[in-house]
């Protein structure tokens, strides 16, 4: 569907280019992580075409790393799908917020753009509301998406050329990514750290009598459920 705006073609081109420019820092962050994902996916035994398809269709770094880790641990498909759904549930909130920012855009554009939203593209769009329009968001999301998918392909192609000692150490990026997501939240409030510790404890306990996949799923759901009243509790 063609986007109908009152802007001239040059203004439309400028908005799209602004989105591409805004995506450059995201590209710089995505490429090394995506390359690492491609390498780890190959190490886990996932065919290159499947890892590239995963990046193309899922486009969610944390979920993809988690899925590969769960596959390596022998988790089943249902367990991985549920864990991915829980981890990505925040996208419902981000999607609704993006729809508000782009409320004047046609519905097909909203659906297409919301399917490509990530934490980083959402943050940039939210911080640049004065520039945020469908064309700006399209340039931002498409550029970030291209970096993620191409990085996965590069990582998969280079996996056999990387020395085993280096490729084995790259799996630490999974933990580094989640720590990177957790630390800013903990700095904002100690409650997030407490929720993380509770979830870790639950996962360790469930892992004693359940498969690794179900342990992660249940620990994530219960940890989030326990965390809601903790976060909402006001200081007296």
Automatic annotation (TrEMBL):
Domain of life, per lineage: Bacteria
Signal sequence range: none
Entry keywords, A to Z: Cell membrane, Membrane, Transmembrane, Transmembrane helix, Transport
InterPro entries noted in UniProt: Brnchd-chn_aa_trnsp_permease (IPR011606)
Membrane spanning residue stretches: 20-41, 48-68, 135-158, 164-183, 212-231
An annotated GO cellular component: plasma membrane
GO biological process: L-valine transmembrane transport
Compartments where found: Cell membrane
Family classification: Belongs to the AzlC family.
Family annotation (PANTHER family): INNER MEMBRANE PROTEIN YGAZ
Designated name of the protein: Branched-chain amino acid transporter AzlC
